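User: Good morning. I'm curious how thymidine-5'-phosphate would be positioned relative to this chain. Could you predict the structure with it bound?
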Amino acid sequence: MQKLQQLYEGKAKRVYATDDPGLVIVDYKDDATAFNGAKKGTIAGKGVINNQMTNRFMAKLEKAGIPTHFVQELSERETLVKKVSIVPLEVIVRNISAGSFAKRYGVEEGIVFDAPTVEFSYKCDALDDPLLNTSHALALKLAARSEIETIRKYALAVNDFLKAFWSSCGVTLVDFKLEFGRLADGTIVLADEISPDTCRLWDSQTHEKLDKDRFRRDLGGVEDAYAEVMRRMKEAL
Ligand code: TMP
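Assistant: Good morning! Here's the predicted structure, ligand included:
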C-alpha cells in the first residue's frame, strides 16, 4: 500500500491518500491541544499509544458486531483505514459526571449515573463544537434520523464493551467521545480514535486520572498516565 499525498491534517493526526481510492492512511502525532486548540503541547509517545490502543479496540469492536473503519496497522504510528466522510457529530457517552457535564449542570465530578447518557456536539471548530439534540441535527441536515438511531445504538454498545474491558484492567471508564463516518455506500462505521485523548479513565481504586485531563488541567505525569493505561491494556489482552 503506497502512502500518497496528505489529504488532511487535524490536531492529533494526519490523513494520507493511498493508491486505493477506498483506503487512507492515518498517522498519529504527539501533538496535544485542549480547549479547541487554545492550549498546545506535546505528549511524547502519545501517537504510538493512541494508534495501538485504538486499533486493538477497533478490532475487538468489529468482532463484537460494530462496524469500524479499521483495516490494518502499518507501523507504530500509521494505520490503514477505510475512507469515510465523517458525520459532523461528536458523540459523547458518560457513565459518571465529569468535565463539561459537571460544569454545565453545576454538579461535582464523580456522580455515578444509573444509566449512561449520550449527547451530541456539532463538530465545528469555528463554533466551538456546540451541544445539540437530535432535532437540531436533523434541522441542520447533519445526519438522517435512521443514521442517528444507528449511531446511538453503536455508541451504547461501545460503552458496554469498553466499560467491561477497562473494569477488568482496574480502570473506570468515566466518559468518552466517538466519531462515526459514512462509507461510499452510506454504511455508518465507527471512525476516529479510542484513546486516553478521547476517554476519561480513572484508576478504579485511587480515582487517579489516567487520561488527557492530566494535560488539560496541568496535573503533570501525562506521559506516565498514557503509558500506564497502555500497559494495563496489553496485560489484559
Ligand atoms: P467534556 O466533558 O469536556 O465534554 O468531554 C467529554 C469526553 O469527550 C471526554 O472523555 C473527553 C472527550 N473529548 C474529546 O475527545 N474531544 C474534545 O474535543 C472534547 C471537548 C472532549
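The pocket of thymidine-5'-phosphate is lined by residues 92, 98-101, 175-177, 198-200 (CB under 6 Å). The two ends are 28 Å apart (CA to CA).
Let me know if you'd like a different ligand tried.
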